[in-house]
Write a structure and sequence with these properties.
Two copies of one chain form a homodimer.
Chain A (H helix, E strand, L loop, with lengths): L3 E5 L3 H15 L3 E5 L2 H13 L6 E4 L15 H11 L4 E6 L4 H11 L3 E4 L4 H14 L6 H4 L11 H11 L4 H10 L7 H15 L4 H10 L4
Parallel strand pairs in A: 1-2, 1-3, 3-4, 4-5
Helix pairs in contact in A: 1-5, 2-3, 9-10
The first copy, chain A, binds a DNA duplex through α9.
Chain lengths: ~220, ~220
DNA sequence: TAAGTCCTTACGGATTTCCGTAATCGCAGG
DNA sequence: CCTGCGATTACGGAAATCCGTAAGGACTTA
């Protein structure tokens, strides 16, 4: 089993929870923690330079801002930077994100080794994930493996952006202007109409207001 | 210090984190945990009947649904039901919610003893909170004490009803019809327009969709 | 009684939404 | 090569939204 692990997670209680689980569930003793990305990076670099490198990083994705100004503000940057000095480090992401496409992106672009969703069954999943990653496996969460069979509506980034803008009260014309300004395609009003119609169907919404209400209730926004 | 505590929190890692903190930070040994509201309630009742009652409940507000069908689905119901059998039980709510009006509502209507926000400094806050509640204090989180108490919009029942209907996708004409059928006055489209305009002003909303999004975010709906 | 205020209602018009139809383009398969 | 499919774009029209003006009724206050 891994002998030296770093946990990067800004929410203290979650941080302590992770430590407790991998300590008691897997018998790992040498566990270090960080509440800030930059701090995690420095700990990593120092351990590497001292020839006592970490073997596993368990990190959150989002780190809230506070008084300590950070260079890195997300787990993604942290992983990228750590991989530069220690390319083969095993990485498990532990995050709220449950959208399959988002999670898949992490595996594809960031080449992480495992993902655990914050949730009701995170203890067992985390233990399984660490064990799997130690064996050399790539451990996908149930949210992804079961996604194909579920009737969950999959939203891509464009959909999320649309819903976000609408919930901020922008009209479709304003959204079009914004997209053109940001050079994001597609950016025609009729395409946006089409995408919205699809969302209406998917969520069985009667109009934009209803749609935003539904998505807010589902916590997708 | 408290000697027997129940932690109700569906996210396992957070659950473990809370236990670790109050165990190591406060030296409390007899800590029980529940991932479901109903389970927490049953543990509570049994302990009370066995004359070994809990002295403190630390509970989350939202509990995700899963395969186990629950009677109680939120921490609010849990607290209400537990208070019926043990009115003086101390209650600390530990939740994501950071909106002052929502949190204040918990103190006023649910008469809880303390509140801790899931966040970066939750460990210290939780320890302080438990200590304060043990002394008999009511422990408000910094989010509330530091909040300015001015920008509160007061909604009457008619406003709430309007917002509710709109968020369910009804058009104003449909709302008018519904009001007339229910013999509720006022019920003209232009009055509804007026009321809505006022809500737009109050919440600085640009249109209906924006308004519903804001109200949903504020947790008023 | 008269004036002022607030609530309700009516109406019109500029704008936006919602939903059709249809044309164009890139692209994979036969 | 061509055919079909999906994504994008354009356009139009009925309905709905948003916001202004205005009028009538209920109430208080002088």
């Amino acid at each position: 089993m891994f002998t030296k692990v770093l946990v990067a997670e800004d929410y203290e209680i979650a941080n302590q929870g992770i430590i407790k689980v991998i300590e008691e569930g897997l018998g790992i003793q040498n566990i270090h923690e960080s509440k800030y990305c930059d701090d995690a990076y420095l700990k990593f670099r120092k351990a590497f330079q001292d020839n006592e490198p970490f073997e596993l990083l368990i990190t959150d994705l989002s780190f809230k801002e506070d008084h300590k100004v950070q260079i890195r503000t997300s787990g993604i940057e942290l992983v990228q930077d750590i991989r530069k000095i220690q390319p083969n480090i095993k990485v498990i992401v532990y995050s709220q994100e449950s959208r399959p496409d988002k999670i898949n992106m992490l595996f594809q672009k960031l080449d992480i080794n495992g993902y655990v969703c914050k949730g009701q069954h995170a203890v067992k999943e985390l233990v399984n994930c660490v064990q799997g990653v130690f064996r050399g496996d790539t451990v996908l969460p149930p949210e992804v493996t079961e996604a194909s069979t579920d009737n969950i509506v999959n939203l891509d980034d464009f959909d999320i952006m649309l819903l976000e803008e609408l919930s901020q009260g922008l009209t479709k014309k304003e959204i079009v202007q914004k997209l053109k300004k940001l050079k994001i395609t597609p950016n025609s009003e009729s395409t946006i109409d089409k995408k919205l119609s699809k969302l209406f169907d998917d969520f069985k919404a009667k109009n934009t207001t209803h749609l935003v209400a539904i998505v807010k209730d589902l916590g997708l926004l």
